[in-house]
């Protein structure tokens, strides 16, 4: 019997209030009560902690990324560019010129929580409660916790869902196929990506 739990009591990587958010890339704040408080200026840290609580071991500085919106590609440790296509699929490509590998990345609800939107598909990268990696219209499945690992690569874990108290990560295997989030681990290099500016 497996339990999928919300990650409201787990470690995050931001400690200050939220930056101004580019709402035009998301959806009207009234449509999501969980994020509405985060999208208002002057939100107290107690509201921010609904997403995650601050832990002493893995606190990272994201000052240089606060409010950042840029075009990027995600290059995996397995040497694939993560691709968000127009048919609801996420996979990897070896082609550095594939337009479907380009995305807009923006930070929401404080540093460390991101949304990744395909530049051409206009869909968001998502991990649902079952750990399936997919693309969809923006909702809570599309909120990802970005962390810089010791090897310099980034990992992207669901900000909303956990499996048996374990975080679930975006990942690509050696064939460029998406990993099941329930089987992913932070130390598995299949979940490691380099964001590359384009």
Can you walk me through this structure?
GO terms for molecular function: growth factor activity. The chain has 198 residues and is mainly beta. The protein has a single domain (4-197), classed as Trefoil (Acidic Fibroblast Growth Factor, subunit A) (Trefoil), CATH 2.80.10. It is 4% helix and 33% strand. It contains 2 helices and 14 strands, in the order ββααββββββββββββ. The protein has helices at 33-36, 45-48; strands spanning 4-6, 11-12, 53-54, 69-76, 81-84, 90-93, 103-107, 113-118, 124-127, 133-136, 144-148, 154-163, 166-169, 193-197. Strands 1, 4, 7, 8, 11, 12, 13 and 14 form an 8-stranded antiparallel beta sheet that branches. Strands 2-3 form a two-stranded parallel sheet. The chain is globular, with a radius of gyration of 16 Å. The N and C termini lie far apart (44 Å). 39% of the residues are buried. The model is unreliable at 1-67 (pLDDT under 50).
